[in-house]
Every structure is written in C-alpha cells, then in structure tokens.
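Sharing in case it's useful to others searching the archive later.

Someone asked me privately for the predicted structure of Solute carrier family 15 member 1, so I'm posting the question and my answer publicly. Question first, with the sequence:
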Amino acid sequence: MADKEDPKNGKMGKGKSKVVCGYPLSIFFIVVNEFCERFSYYGMRAVLVLYFKYFLRWDDDLATSIYHTFVALCYLTPILGAIVADSWLGKFKTIIYLSIVYAVGQVAMAVSAIHDITDSDRDGTPDSMTFHIVLSMVGLFLIALGTGGIKPCVAAFGGDQFGEHQDRQRRTFFSVFYLCINGGSLLSTIITPVLRAQECGIYSKQKCYSLAFGVPAALMVVALVVFIIGSGMYYKAEPQGNIMLDVCKCIGVSLAYTICINTFYITAYQQWLKKLLIAQIKMVLKVLFLYIPLPMFWTLFDQKGSRWTLQATTMDGNFGALVIQPDQMQTVNPILILTLVPIMDSLIYPLIKKCGLNFTPLKRMTVGMLLAAIAFVCAALVQIQIDVSTKQLLHSSPYILSGQGFIYFKLTIKGKANSDTEIVENQAITFVGFTDYFLVYFRFVNGMKTAVNVSTAAADFGLIEPFYYSNYSQIKNGKATFTLRSGSQSCEYSTNFGFGSSYTFFIHSTLVFGSNCQDSVTAVEDIKPNSVHMALQIPQYFFITAGEVMFSVTGLEFSYSQAPSNMKAVLQAGWLFTVAIGNFIVLIVAELAKIPKQWAEYVLFASLLVAVCVIFSIMAYFYTYIDPTEIEAQFKKKINEDDEDDKSKPGKAEVEMVKRDSIKCHDEYDKATQTKM
Ligand SMILES: N[C@@H](Cc1ccccc1)C(=O)N[C@@H](Cc1ccccc1)C(=O)O
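And my answer, the predicted structure tokens:
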C-alpha cells in the first residue's frame, strides 16, 4: 500500500491517483458521484408523497406511512451494505453493484408513473392501479437497498483514498463531501417539483411524475458512470474476510478459553490475529456505545420535513416577487449548509484554535446538539406567535345575516384554509393535512330573489338558488375577479385572497346587474389570511443547520477516523443507524405524547435533547481518542514477527486448529497474552 509521498510522481495519497493541490484526483470522481446520487435521492423523495396521493390516489395517512417506512428503510440498509463491503465484496464493488440496483429502482419508479401504460380507455387515468403500485413498491425497495447500501461505503471509500499523514486533507474531504450532498439535494428539490408540475403523456396529458422520477434516474446512471470512470485511480482496500463471522468466532474461541473445556491449540501468529480482532471490536464497540444518545439529534433534525413544514402552512409565504411554498422552506437547509460549512472550516474553527481552545470532534457534536435544541425553542416561539394570531381570528368568527328572509350562518372554523381543508356539513372548515398552499376557499350566499351564476375566467362555480349558498370552492390565492350572472345580465366583483384565508361573499338583495357590483357584495372573512411571516422560520433553520454542520459533518469524519481499517463501513452504517432510530422516535413520541399545544411539543423535544446532550458530554469526557492505524500497525508488526517464527518451525504454521488438552492451551494462551504490545 503506497500511502507515503512518492517523490518521483508526486503521489501522496493511496492508490494510483495523481495528486492535485495535495488531494488525490480520485476524490473528484467520488464527490461528483455523491452529488449526482444525492440529487437522485432527494429529487425523487421531494415528489414522492404527492405521487402517492395524486397518482396512486392513496389517502394522506397511507401516503405518509409508506413515505416514512421508505425513509427509515433507507437508513437501515446501510448495515447490509457495510457488511457486504467490509467482509465480502469490498467497498468498490459494493458501490458498483448496489448503484446498478439503485438505478434500476429509479427507472422502475419513472416507468410506474407513466399513466399511458395502463390507460387503455385513454381518459388520462391508469386503468390498472395494481400495476403502478406494484412497480413503484418494487422500485422503492430497490432504491432503499441501493441508496442505503452504498451510503456507508462511499463516505468510507472516500476516506480510504487518503494516506496516513493526510488527516487535514481527509477532514476537508468530508466537508466538501457534505457540500456536494447539499448542492445535489438543493438543485433537485428545486427542479423535480417543477418537472412534476409539467403536463405530459402520449394519449392524454397528466402531471409529469414520470419526468420527475426520470431525471433522478438519469442522474443515478450518471453517478454510476462517473464512479466507474475513476476506477483506475482508486485505492481499493481489500475486504478482510467475513467480519461478522470472525467476530462470532472470536467470541466463541474466547469463551472456550474461559470455560477451559475442549479448547483448541492456536499458533502464536493466530493468537495475535485474534488479539488484533478483539482490539478492533473494542474500538468499534466504544464508538457505538458513544452513539447511544445520538438518535435524539436526528429526532429533532428530521422534523424539518414534517412539523416545520406544517408550521409553514399556517404562515405567510409572500416574499414580494417570490412566493414560497411551505415545503420549499426546506431548501433553506442546504442553502445554509453551502454557506456555513466553508465559514466554519475556514473561519470559526481556525479562530477557536487560535484562541487556544481544543475544540475536539466530540465537543463540536455536543455544541451541535445544543444548537438543535435552540432551534426548537425558536420554533416554539414562532408557534406561540401563530397561535396568538389564530386565537384572534377564532374570536372574530362571524355570523352572516342575509337581508330579506334572513339566511343565518354560524361558521365553525377549525383550521387554516390553505392546509388541505375539508368542508364539514358545508359549514366548518377542518384541517386534515397539507397539500396545496396556494389554494384558498370561498363561497357565495345569494340574498337575491333570482338565481345567480358565479364564475371566473378559469372556472364556473354554478348556479346559486335565491336565498341559498354555494358549496366552498377552491381558488388560487391573490387577486380574483368573479362574474355574477343572472340570465343575460352580469357584473364583476374583484377581491384579494391572502394565504390561508377563506371567505363567504354575501350578494345583497339590492344588487343591480349592469352596474358596479363591487358595493353590492360583502366579503366576510371566515378565516383570516396567515399573518405570521415565513421569514420568522429562518432563525430556527439557521440554528438547526449550524447544529447539523457541527454534529453531522463532524460525526461523519469521527466515524471514519475512529474505525479500524476493516470496519470503516460498518461504523458508517452504525452512524446512519442512529438516523433510523431518530426517525422511529419521532413516530413514537408523536403517537404517545399527544401534546395538544404544538409549541409545548417543541419545548419538550428541546428539553429532551438538552438532557441527552448532558449525558453525551459526560460519555464524551471519558472517551479516549485513538489512532486505529497506529494500533493496527503495532499488532501487525508483532503478527509478522510471530509468523516468521512459526514458519521456522516445520509443520506448525500449517496447523490451523489442533485439538489439545486444556493445560497446553493455557500455557500457550498465557505466553501470548503476557507479551507486551
Ligand atoms: N442537509 C441534508 C440534506 C437536505 C437537503 C434538503 C432538505 C433536507 C436535508 C444533508 O446534508 N444530509 C446528509 C446527511 C444526513 C442528514 C440526515 C440524515 C442522514 C444523513 C445526507 O447524506 O443526505
């Protein structure tokens, strides 16, 4: 293994890669691969729930459950990928094979979203939903296997490209790696929703989910091709046998020694191998033990996509020329990552170092946790603001009185109109989940003796009988012009709809068609427009992202640097497993806690994280940083010495395991274990 500077060709990293500015060129292919892969993953994920809901026609509950199951699976499969990579195929081959599985999964998703395939009556809707459901579930399973399987391998494979004395470069690599993840995810979460909104189809036009899944599929193929192009330059660490089997064997043999019956004779060479494996297992277990409190961070972090997005649906997203959708607020995270990672790396961390403070990885992670807790306190404060504004509107819940004949309504308002609102008994508006933020609700009450037809340039809302009211209809927020028509006579009424608002328009009995009907219609606000601006979510996004930079970027590098050479991917998988557990905690706490006040739930999560953070800092205090390469080198030196020794004694080296009496076994074992490292 060539991991020292080679003066002839200027190589410094491992493998055959040229070195550019102190970094092995092979790294370029790995970060580009990660960029494309994350584009593919996050792009597909961005439209997945809408695909379930609008294409497969699932209800909100089913769509949400399948979505979370898929995400959880994506963070469980890394264990599988890591075992395959570290014990059998090696990281390189595992990445190649699982990337193919991944790309096939993405293609299956894209094909499953072509409605024309089963639309034999050509009415724009699939005729055999089973085909689309089965294909998309197979696709999602393959994607989870692929994305999760390669995830621990790519980061560890990147780390492998650096030589022993390139700690600084390796740290920078993990930062750049994180930047690429966020560059890819930022672009895709902007692009795929736009693609989805296009209309496409052979026989009939429908929302273009196939394109929204097709582009991520193409990016996954690009990721694979880029990775293969770099293949001649990589340092490919050989898999070191079946690690899991070795671990089990090691435990078994140790037990045999301990209970001292039926023990085996093992050469001194094998003794050292066993001791090395025990030392490596100890390194991994120490780190895994330290990981126990970590899922709590992810529990808070992953609520960006759920609770915080729902919070945004009750806020005003009007940023002047730009109107932001609640789910688009999530792009603030990768945008902030792209700015914060370079600032931290080139300014904050060096500054802290200059101040003489030893800001160790575990200290960074502790601060990251605290920042996430602060983010949730900010979220709670914003929630209190929202609740105050909602309370005001509930008190002003109106009664509508008609002129002649007195039509009388009492409106029961239970939620915001922009949040996939359900009309109950034509009177109450109940929040059931978020769909389209731009839609608001309205209805008309006809106080005239004649039937009135209501329409806009885009839609006809039908005829309203005298002294009767229309059902609620949806319309895009912003300015709307209604045409009120009775027979051949008409007039126009214009109004503005704010985000989240709902209106009842009362047509006066005194309305005269042909004249200005602006004064003859009274608009009553059923639900006030959202008044708390979405910009108020920026502080909470800032703190959670700053926390992510300190926690996640550091943790990724920490998991690599503290892992023994044969278990790098296994420890990366352990790190990702904390993400999966964090997601399960969200489901459990949300289900069990059932806290009526959302702000209180945010405070609860913040407090839990602070408590966990205290425990983690105590555990971190007792953790001793190790240099696995150094420890392994000492063991290997000893192994080589004893190997030579064994070879000089004919026949002994060939004997793998010879059954001997327990006294001999003890003698040998004691001799080997008394030798100092
Ligand atoms: N900041 C996230 C990416 C992101 C992009 C758009 C919306 C939300 C998040 C990120 O960097 N993710 C990394 C690390 C990670 C984070 C959480 C769970 C697992 C891994 C990634 O590898 O995806």
